[in-house]
Amino acid sequence: MLDLLHNLDWVLPLRNEGLTPLMRLFTLLGYEKFILFFLPLGYWAWSKSVFMRLFVLVAITAVLNAYLKDLWQDPRPDLALRMDDAVGDSFGMPSGHAQIAVVLWLWLAYEVRRPWFWLVSGVVVAGIIFSRLYLGAHDLEDVLVGTLLGGVTLLLFAQVKDWNWWRQANAFWHLALITLVALLCYFTWQGVAPNYVPLLAGLLVGVLFGYRLVGFSMATLWWKRALAAALGALAFIGLQALLKWLGPQLALQPLLWQGIRGLTMGLFVAALMPWLLLRLRLLPARADL
């Protein structure tokens, strides 16, 4: 049983030139760049409230995953089997792709509540999880633990998402909680936290404040939603390029810069871009909380 959990010899015969590009595509859906691009688009063009919850859920899940990785320090499969160089020297268990895929796509299915979307989400989740085994980035134990943690996170979040007293609380309490969690992580982390941990903390602060500052509902016409998504995507790409250039110019301490970068992105997503889309009349000016 232990050999099955850690041995990837069964994957090797499945590798071929036709399947590998598909597995690389699935694995791309679990990386930071795609997720930080997908969530803003959904916030502007799909549902402000649903994607606000997803921002919170994904941030919590990603930080928990990184914390447990460095706490358990379980090695990844042998480097000779690996077809994904983006993982660097990070540890393997739990699989972040598996954990975040379960949380992101199954929560979306839970919100949409359509059989066809459950089917699509299930295929995406299964594809992402299998891609990590196929590419040799994780063993079976890594993805099973990540899947289990993602499922538990979903169940807990489903119980607390309707706590109106928390949603309506003063923004100070939200900021205080994020700060407390960040400090606990900082003082208890095994080693040095990945750069995306302060980035996610800053992003969450920016999104939470922007969510309260700029109220809007979704456009009813499909072309307005599509145009809002397209303009937002172009602006977001421009923002990333600007931040990439600005980082070396400021030469700040790396963790501090990642926090500032995340805060800037969060305010852009939830405040600046919605304000601009309201001015362009692509979003109706009505609170959607």
Automatic annotation (TrEMBL):
Transmembrane segments: 22-43, 50-68, 91-109, 116-137, 143-160, 172-189, 195-214, 226-243, 255-278
Catalytic function, reaction form: di-trans,octa-cis-undecaprenyl diphosphate + H2O = di-trans,octa-cis-undecaprenyl phosphate + phosphate + H(+)
EC number of this enzyme: 3.6.1.27
Alphabetical list of InterPro entries matching this protein: PAP2/HPO, PAP2/HPO_sf
Top-level taxon: Bacteria
Xref: Pfam families: PAP2 (PF01569)
Single GO molecular function: undecaprenyl-diphosphatase activity
Keywords of the record: Membrane, Transmembrane, Transmembrane helix
Class of enzymatic activity (EC top level): hydrolase
Residues in Phosphatidic acid phosphatase type 2/haloperoxidase domain copies: 52-158
Protein name in the entry: undecaprenyl-diphosphate phosphatase
Organism encoding this protein: Pseudomonas cavernicola
